[in-house]
Amino acid sequence: MTKTKRSDAITKGPSRAAARAMLRATGMTDEDFDKPMVAVINTYSSVTPCNMHLRDLAPSVLKGVREAGGWPVEFGALVVSDGITMGHEGMRASLMSREVIADSIELAVRGHALDAAVIMVGCDKTIPAAAMALARLDVPGVVFYGGTIAAGCPASGAKAGQDISIQDAFEAVGAHGRGAIDDAELGAIERAACPGAGSCGGQFTANTMAMALAFLGLAPMGAGDPPAEHPDKAAEAERCGRLAAERAFAEGGRSFVTETSLRNAALSVVASGGSTNAVLHLAAIAAEAGTPFSIDAFDALSRETPVIANLKPGGRYLAQDLHAAGGCRRFGRVLMEGGFLEDAPTVSGKSLFEELKGAEESADRDVIRPLENPVKKTGGLRVLYGDVAPEGAVLKTAGYADAAFEGPARIFESEEDCFAAVQRGEIVAGDVCVIRYEGPAGGPGMREMLAVTAALAGQGLAGKVALITDGRFSGASHGFVIGHVAPEAARGGPIGLLQEGDIIRIDAEGRRIDADIDWDARRAAHTPRPLRRMGGYFDKFAALVGSASQGATTIIREGK
Ligand SMILES: CC(C)(O)[C@@H](O)C(=O)O
Ligand SMILES: [Mg+2]
User: Which residues are involved in binding [2Fe-2S] cluster (predicted)?
Assistant: First the structure.
């Protein structure tokens, strides 16, 4: 007696003869119609190292599905590379792609009534999109992360012989713009930064989100850890395929997205000095699941949790070093033993604590620090409110001790304008750069400001200049940076009312960002700008997208 399953809707009964006829052409036979049909959704693309190896790993996933008695069905989903789109118009497409990827997964699975899914991910947005889709669809599923890139090693120049990442390439642009390094040095870094396949190598957004999904329970603990070109990667891909097929009759993705698992995921972000984008993405995943979650969780956790992973950009090492030091499991075990995590189910079938107890011993005490010798005593993410950000904003101080900053506003209506001013040397220590009309709807697309933060870093101004934006930051951004300011300028947010020279006060401890101005008078004199029309999907996204404080999703809410 075979179990009933969702895919019976396309494979069972006389009325499905035409559907079966088509499926037979794909290789299915009578006995296969009794197998759970598992979507293998691959965000492969040859455009970026983050995803370019996923095509080679797909056969291992398919093998795993078949071994566990499932019938794999392959789909492609797109990726928009953050690293390649950074600093130009194309970066607007990055956050938009998160919605499109989640929508594509939904339509592939829902459209064909599939029983389970494995989603193969690499670059930043593919990871939260996979979790959002599993939460939305509530089908059983597993997220498989393609892994980090290896360290680069320049052959010549000041960084010769050192481990570098894409962060060094972005910051070299800033240094080159100021004349601190020459063309040859920039070229040496450019040629070495990306030695092969894999996602950007620090605790930037991809590695942060891959870790967060393991703590959320939607990615099997440890499967994402081996670097992209590591010999263990194919076995992990196969494990994920097997798990998805085995889980075809188990609970759906939504059941893993609980208040407890979201807190565990946020804690992993804070304790690893992870990307501010995680604030946006975990809020979006929670919204898709309908699970209550406030971005304030990041602030509370950040105040009580030490940073124990010594990873770039706040620390010293790369994700390949984390893997060598015992990976997410050993990192998590330290946190578990310190009483920071709560136990929760995971897709492997083992609970989070069972997984973490299996961590291997390691002689390392520097990549993953013991609790008594942390990289920082507390985390570097703060959620601020105040006059300038009534719905919230996210501050990243990782690596910079300042709890307060006060200075004159330098107003820019786009990222490009600010970048040009930085490169011309017009921004000085003490300034508060305000980059607005870069929010989810106003950009549209809420671009990452890595070009600007890297240019500031390249000029030795990281931490000496504050940067406020309704856009967002890259995981490689560092300095005294505040993003996700909500409401955004294009939706009437106060950030749009600031003027050149206004004194901005940022109080990380008091969780406020204020300006001493007559807000009523400013608003009365303000002419709201119409939304920028850019055509195509950009306009659809601008019309639908919600506040960054709720994840900047395109979920249709009551009254929207
Ligand atoms: C290009 C990067 C480093 O991947 C960035 O987009 C991030 O968010 O970390
Ligand atoms: Mg990014």
Answer: 50
- Centroid of ligand 2 to alpha carbon of 255 (angstroms): 27
Give the burial class of 170: count Cβ atoms within 10 A of its Cβ; 0-12 exposed, 13-18 middle, 19 or more buried.
buried
Q: What's the half-sphere exposure (Cβ side, CA atoms, 13 Å) at 374?
A: 21
Q: Is the confidence metric ipTM above 0.95 for this complex?
A: yes
Closest CA to 546 of 253, 283, 265: 283
Cα–ligand 2 centroid distance for 261 (angstroms): 23
Is 464 annotated in a binding site? The answer is: no
Tens digit of each residue's pLDDT (9 = 90 or more) over 132-152: 999 999 999 999 999 999 999
Question: In the beta sheet, which residues pair with residue 42?
Answer: 76, 120
State the closest ligand 1 atom to the C-alpha of 277, by its place in the atom list counted from 1. 8
151 class by beta-carbon count within 10 Å (0-12 exposed, 13-18 middle, 19+ buried): buried
Among 295, 298, 240, residue whose Cα is nearest residue 268: 298
| Predicted pLDDT at 397 | 76
Of the candidates 213, 185, 215, 181, the residue with the CA atom closest to the CA atom of residue 199: 213
Q: Which fold, 382-550?
A: Glucose Oxidase; domain 1 (3.50.30)
Is 50 annotated as belonging to a binding site?
A: yes
pLDDT attached to residue 398: 58
CB 441 within 8 A of CB 407: no
Whole-model pTM: value is: 0.97
Please confirm, yes or no, whether 165 is among the known catalytic residues. no
* Binding-site residues, ligand 1, Cβ < 6 A: 82-83, 86, 124, 166, 200, 204-206, 275, 277, 448, 474-476
Domain formed by 35-149+197-295, architecture: 3-Layer(aba) Sandwich (3.40)
Nearest CA to ligand 1 atom 5: 474
For residue 206, the CA-to-ligand 2 centroid distance in Å is 7
Is 41 in contact with 75 (CB distance < 8 Å)? yes
- Residue spans of the domains in the chain: they are 35-149+197-295, 382-550
